[in-house]
Each structure stands twice: as structure tokens, then as C-alpha cells.
Amino acid sequence: MRIGITYDLKADAPPDPALPDDAQEEFDSPATVEAVAAVLRGLGHEVIKLGDGRELLERLLADPPEFVFNFAEGHGVSRSREARVPAVLEMLGIPYSGSDPLTLTTTLDKDCARRLVASAGGVVPVGTSIAPNDDMDEVNRRPEAVFPAIVKPAWEGSSKGIRGKCLVERPEDLADAVASLRRDHRQPVLLEEFIDGEELTVGFVGNDPPTAIGILRVLPMVPTERFIYSLEVKRDYLRQVRYESPPALPAKTLQAVEKAARLAWKALGCRDVSRIDFRLRKDVPYFLEVNPLPGL
To answer: What Rg, from alpha-carbon coordinates, does the chain have?
Structure first.
């Protein structure tokens, strides 16, 4: 089979020095793209590297593949950027891997995702979305503004914008934290109560039903009062955290986490592959987000 792979590459240098240093955090290296291509070739397929953007469109129109393995994240700050490639593929009638445009848009919009999961019976942190022009005094008066809290960009992945300073202990500190995110990421900000508990993620592959390939727990090397799996920690993971899979937690707890993950997968319409993140507090898994284009 002729399989095209779609992706976004990290530039050798930041395309715009005004952008934050995590602007390309979701994008892949040539080594990752080639590793994926090598696996597909090893299965006997012909592989075409399609990339993304205008170059992708030109190649699809000139010589379309039979199937596309998609892990393109999309450029810019639109909440629909991850949906662009599958939307084009559907328009051209080319089958592809992964979730469809609606799911990719819904899961990138963290507030939309949490609302859908909550409506299906999932447990989510208390939270509220802060629009670009919202008055911060009014935000602090909302009943959903519970402290300590985490603030993060509403339409990002790969922990973009999630730094140590995103933990807000007091209402009077909220305005500065939100202003910083608004300046760097140009989108709404999600405010959620800080869930003091275990950081867990569940991987799924397949469909009808999907197969849980494991639960992973992220543990800080040095115990801390309020652990945040921030971008700084991820970039320094060898020194700052250890990964435990399966987690050394009671079987009943792990079953509850997998059940909550399956509920979120179904509520958001995931397909083929996804990673679903939780915080576990008093044996209750709190849904955080879904990544339907997980790192490979």
C-alpha cells in the first residue's frame, strides 16, 4: 500500500522571535518522522512523506496516496488547527488514521472537552474559561474560581504554556498569571482548581472497544507539596521525574481510572489511538484532557 505520512517539523530556528519558546513544542524532528516511516516500510508499505500546509495540498492533488498516517499538529493558535489535515483528507476521500476533525477540534479546546466529559458522567475539576476581554475582578467573583488553581492556555497541547508559575495560590495573583498567558498564546485561558493527587495517563489503541495498553504514573524525584507536570519538568524529565507503569496502586483504583478513561474516549469520539490524562484524588480520577495525536 502507498501510505502518506503527515506531520509538522520543528524549524532549525524559531520562525518568530516574538513567539514563546514553546511555540513548536508539539512539532516533530526529522528523526521521529523517519522512525515512523521506517516502521511502515518494515510492514511492507511504500511511504510518502507529505508534511503539512501548502506542500501537503499540492502533493495530495498531484499524486494521492491510498492511506494517510496522520500526526500533523497544525500551525497557529486556532482551536481547529489539528482538524485541518483530516478535514482535507475527508474532502478528497482519502482514508487516514486517528480521530476525525470534530474530535480533534473538541479535544484541543480543553473547556469544550471537559464539558462533554462532565455531561457524560465524568468527574472534572471545578473550572471556568477566561475570554480575552474578561474582567479579572469579575472572574475572581465566579464560584468556579477555586484556589489553589492552575491556569493554562485553553487551546494547546504538549504542555504549551503550562509552567511552574501557572499554579496560582491566591485570587490576587490570578491577573498576572492570566496576562502572561494571554500575551504569549493569544487565546482563552482555562482556570481549574488544582487537584492535589497522582498524575496518571492512560493509553488506548483500537476501536469497538479500544484496548487500554497501560496506565502510567508520573512521580517527582523529590517530593513536593504541589507537584505540576509542567513543561520545565518534561524538558528535564530524566532528573525530575520517574515513570511507573503499571502504577503501584490498588487494582480497584486502576480499574476506576481505566473506566473513567473509557468514558472520556467515548464521550469525545476518539478513534484508533489516544492518551487520556487524569489527576487522582482520594481514589477519584479527575479528567484533565485527551491527546488524540500523542507523541510517538
So the answer is: 19
Q: What is the pLDDT of residues 110-147, one digit of tens each?
A: 999 999 999 999 999 999 999 999 999 999 999 999 99
- Which cell is 77 given? 493558535
Closest by Cα among 198, 112, 109 to 157:
109
CA distance 294 to 296: 6
Give the predicted TM-score (pTM) of the model: 0.93
Candidates 48, 6, 58; CA nearest to 27 is 6
Q: Which contacts qualify for 138-146: CB closer than 8 Å, 24 or more apart?
A: 139/174, 139/178, 139/191, 140/171, 140/174, 144/191, 145/171, 145/174, 145/191, 146/193
If phi > 0 it is left, if psi is from -120 to 50 it is alpha, else beta; for residue 33 that is alpha
Residue type present at position 281: R
Give the separation between CA 203 and CA 198, rounded to whole angstroms: 16
